[in-house]
Amino acid sequence: MKLIPLPAFTDNYLWLLHDEHQALVVDPGDAQTVLQALQRLDLRLEAILVTHHHADHTGGVDALREATGAAVYGPAREPVSEPVHRMNQGDRVRALGLEFVVMDVPGHTAGHIAYYSDAGFDGAPLLFCGDTLFSAGCGRLFEGTPAQMLASLDALAALPADTWVCCAHEYTLGNLAFACAVDPANEALHNYAVTARERRATQQPTLPSPLRLERQINPFLRTREEAIIHAAQGFDPTASEAAEVFAALRTWKNEFR
Q1: Is residue 73 situated within a structural domain?
Q2: Which of these, 126, 128, 56, lies nearest to 87 by C-alpha position?
Q3: What local confidence, expressed as pLDDT, does residue 123 receive?
Q4: Residue 121 has pLDDT above 90, yes or no
Q5: What are phi and psi for residue 41, nearest 5 degrees?
Q6: Does any domain span residue 220?
Q7: Less CB within 10 Å around the terminal CB: N or C of the chain?
């Protein structure tokens, strides 16, 4: 099984998973990028997985469906053009001989979902999480509440440590700059920042990222740890409960330069 992040727009990744014959694509905001990859690799598109309704994740769905006949799977409660298989928590998508379990992860949008396979890539678990979890960060809250997003991140963080996290944007360097401001004594975080900068200097993606690393370095997954609580209270002294700490961090990140 091969996993390819196809760059699109300014910083999107359209994830292409294939077995050298058939493929699935996740959040295809741009059809042409995907069609070119399918032609170059001589692949047939079997399935299109959509995590949420934003145009940079859905803009190529109609053209790809028409060109390839691929089945489309998407969130049950968000506007994705028909025909689409509407997916809820616990539903399963079967493609490429794999089974992906759907997780409801509201916060970035109200009906955002993620797709998890326990053996999706070289025998390791695979997570397509859209704009919910990023490496060293998380998505903005456009439609959900801090409590919803925290619950979504808690659910993702509880997946096996060797899960490969496939985020939909190359936001890693900016997220790491903020994470270092929040948690300056974190050695693992600083080591990862060096590696990430080296990769981006040669135009290599920083993704996918192993979940065990995100548990160590991502402040939005660590809102109950003393160092993160203390940092958040420096921005908002009233933050004490985990959802309040998360809300303070997210607001701080929105303003961080």
Answers
A1: yes
A2: 128
A3: 82
A4: no
A5: -100, 0
A6: no
A7: C
Report the domain count for the chain.
Answer: 1
For 39-48, write each residue's pLDDT tens digit.
999 999 999 9
Which residues on neighbouring strands pair with residue 100, listed in sequence order?
93
Residue 236 lies in a domain: no
Tokens standing for residue 172: 């890693």
**Rounded average pLDDT over 193-205:** 98
Query: Is 229 a domain residue?
Result: no
From residue 1, how far is each of 20, 69, 121, 140, 171 by CA, in Å?
Answer: 7, 22, 6, 32, 26
- Position with higher pLDDT, 142 vs 119: 142
Tally helices (H) and strands (E) across the chain.
9, 14
Mean pLDDT, range 176-196, rounded to an integer: 98
β-sheet bridge partners, residue 73: 49, 85
Active site residues: 52, 54, 56-57, 108, 131, 169
How high is the pLDDT of residue 235? Answer: 97
Domain that holds residue 128: 2-178+204-214
Q: What is residue 221's DSSP assignment?
A: G
